[in-house]
Design goal:
The structure holds two protein chains of two kinds. Chain A is an alpha+beta fold. Chain A contains four helices and six strands, in the order H-H-H-E-E-E-E-E-E-H. Chain A has a five-stranded mixed β-barrel. Chain A is flat and about 75 Å long. The N and C termini of chain A lie far apart (68 Å). Chain B is mainly alpha-helical. Chain B has a domain of 155 residues. Classes of the chains: A alpha+beta, B mainly alpha. At the A-B interface, helix 1, strand 6 and helix 4 of A face helix 3 and helix 4 of B.
Chain lengths: 142, 234
């Protein structure tokens, strides 16, 4: 049904697209370190050596009841429910920064358990709900 | 149905269809906006800035979808040499470009109050910018390469290469740690977005999709006319 010309074109395109996708895959694979926007506490824990001069980002959840706010600084714990890192930060946190919510801290790792942040970003999750619903959910949980 | 898109048919496309579609679109967008801005509740964390989503998400969806269509048309066109496919793809491109721009701008406006920053170079945001550049490259080729056959070939290759960026955009939030949140609406599980917010989102999506269709029909008609005129001149 298909003419020879069309067939050869299809073969060429399939060849082109497989090559392109393999190339794409390897480019992304080699860029992995840059593509990853932040490290989780477990990833930090698994690292063989900690480069304290390098500016990095760590992310996870703000541990419940871990936030200690003073006038100019804030201290809290980032957790991924397996490992934890203590974070200290001088400055104002975003409005949506809250216990139990996602957070990303940018700064320097002093050691595997202590991080000094220069900036704090609040990470929003994929849940969208009206306030009444969340209240009802909390009620039924208690 | 597809016969209506043949060049001979599209020229007889009367303004009646377009104005009917326009009336439907205005109605749908009007209902959607009322629902999105007044009837739907604020989010329990984000508050009222969640309303940006009703424009942001449909725009991103349409921007990705249109590029996907352009890419598939380009593949078919390279293989089978169907005359009207490049004209269709060419007419679609500016629509997708505008929507990807809207997606990025509204996302940025949402990012400032939510994340605390206008812009970051995480995988989702960066791959979306790459999509924008693919649109720009695609449109530029049609704009600046005068020979139709050459423009057709170059733009097709650009859009086919750009196709590979689409799954990267879609799955960037699952493959890597990103600041951007994962999708709330997936094929495999229940949406993590409350129905009172999902309904206006869907209405807005249809409104913007109809808008895209209208602009496409008008542009496509113009492109077919231009193509026939150029042929006559030669």
């Amino acid at each position: 049904m298909l003419s020879k010309r069309v067939k050869s074109k299809i073969v060429f395109l399939i060849f082109l697209m497989t090559t392109a996708s393999v190339a794409f895959f390897f480019i992304l694979k080699s860029l992995e370190k840059n593509v990853v926007y932040f490290f989780s506490p477990t990833e930090i824990y698994d690292m063989s050596n900690v480069a304290s001069e390098e500016r990095i980002r760590i992310g996870g959840l703000v541990k419940e009841k871990s936030v200690i706010k003073s006038q100019t600084s804030v201290k809290f714990i980032i957790t991924d429910l397996k490992n934890e890192i203590n974070v200290s930060y001088n400055g104002v946190v975003p409005n949506l920064f809250a216990e139990g919510k996602g957070v990303i801290a940018e700064g320097y790792l002093r050691d595997k358990k202590y991080f000094v942040a220069n900036s704090i970003l609040a990470k929003h999750d994929e849940n969208y709900m009206p306030p009444e619903v969340i209240k009802a959910l909390e009620k039924s949980n208690n | 149905m597809f016969k209506n898109f043949f060049p001979s048919k599209i020229l007889s496309l009367n303004n009646n269809l377009v104005s009917n579609l326009l009336a439907v679109m205005i109605l749908v967008i009007f209902v959607g906006l009322i629902y999105a801005l007044f009837l739907s509740p604020p989010d329990y964390i984000q508050g009222d800035s969640v309303r940006i989503m009703y424009v942001h998400v449909p725009s991103s969806f349409i921007a990705l979808g249109i590029f996907g269509i352009i890419g598939i048309f380009s593949i078919l066109n390279l293989i089978f040499k169907i005359k009207f496919l490049p004209l269709m793809a060419k007419s679609l491109a500016p629509i997708g470009f505008v929507f990807s721009l809207i997606s990025i701008v509204t996302g940025s406006l949402w990012g400032k109050p939510t994340w605390g920053i206008w812009w970051v170079w995480d995988a989702r945001l960066t791959s979306m910018v790459i999509l924008l550049f693919f649109y720009i490259a695609y449109i530029c080729v049609w704009q600046f390469v005068n020979n139709f056959e050459r423009a057709n070939k170059i733009s097709s290759v650009i859009s086919i290469v750009g196709l590979f960026n689409l799954p990267v955009i879609k799955y960037s939030v699952d493959w890597w740690n990103t600041l951007h949140q994962p999708s709330s609406i997936t094929l495999t599980s229940a949406p993590t977005i409350h129905y009172s917010m999902l309904i206006p989102l869907i209405i807005m999506f249809f409104g913007m999709a109809i808008y895209s269709l209208i602009i496409f029909l008008m542009r496509y008609k113009t492109e077919v006319m231009r193509f026939k005129l150029d042929k006559k001149k030669k």
